[in-house]
Every structure is written in C-alpha cells, then in structure tokens.
Amino acid sequence: MSETVRMRLLERFAAAWNARDLDALMDCMAPVCAFHASGGPDASGRVYSGRAAVRAGYQAVFDAFPEAAWTNARHFVAGNRGVSEWRFRGVDREGRRVDVDGCDLFVFDGDLIAVKDSYRKMRSG
C-alpha cells in the first residue's frame, strides 16, 4: 500500500478517537491486531490482542476519560510503520484534568493497522 493511503488511514483513525466511534476505530484495524496501552502492569503497558480485546481496550480508554480530546495531530508513515503525535486533554472519572503530549507507534498490515502502541507523557510536581 502507498504511504498516502496509510496517511489517510491515520487521519481517519485520529478523527474516530475524537468522535468516540468504536466502529470507525475498528474499521481501521487489521483482522489480527493489538493495542499496547500507555499504562498497565507490564513494561509495554497493558496489551490487548485480537479484535475483541482491542475494542474492549479502546472502550476502556473512553470509560476512563469521559471527556477527552486528541488535538494537534501530526502523522508520518515510513514503509509499514507510522507515527501519530498529539496533545491529549481530558478529564478522568474522578474529575482530574490531564493535559499531556503523546504519540502512537503503528505497524501496518496492508492498508490497516496491525499494532497501535501508545505513549503519553506523565506530569510531575
């Protein structure tokens, strides 16, 4: 697939996050896929493998942050890999505000996302 097609895919994917549209998110994912959340018990975060688990992982993000927006999105693609950089602003279930930069590292399978590996900055002090 061309890098242009994959760039458009990342643009659609980012828009689906802001629309909180699980079906649109999953339309961007390959049949065999994984989501590595930015937090979790393992060094690589919490890993969701398989379409049902990935969908549940994405829903968990929406549940954790009833208010959320990913802004200032910038994407690039190189071969079967891609990166999205963004600013995350949200309010969690306890009312705490979050405002941090982050990125996603992607691996593509054809014209779909096989792996989404998320990273978010953690503020201190």
From TrEMBL:
Q: Which UniProt keywords apply?
A: Isomerase
Q: Specify the species.
A: Tepidamorphus gemmatus
- Record-level Gene Ontology MF annotations: isomerase activity
Q: Which residues form the SnoaL-like domain?
A: 11-114
Q: Which residues cross the membrane?
A: none
Keyword Thylakoid present in the record's keywords: the answer is no
InterPro entries named among the record's database cross-references = NTF2-like_dom_sf (IPR032710), SnoaL-like (IPR037401)
Name used for this protein in its record? Ketosteroid isomerase-like protein
Signal sequence annotation: none
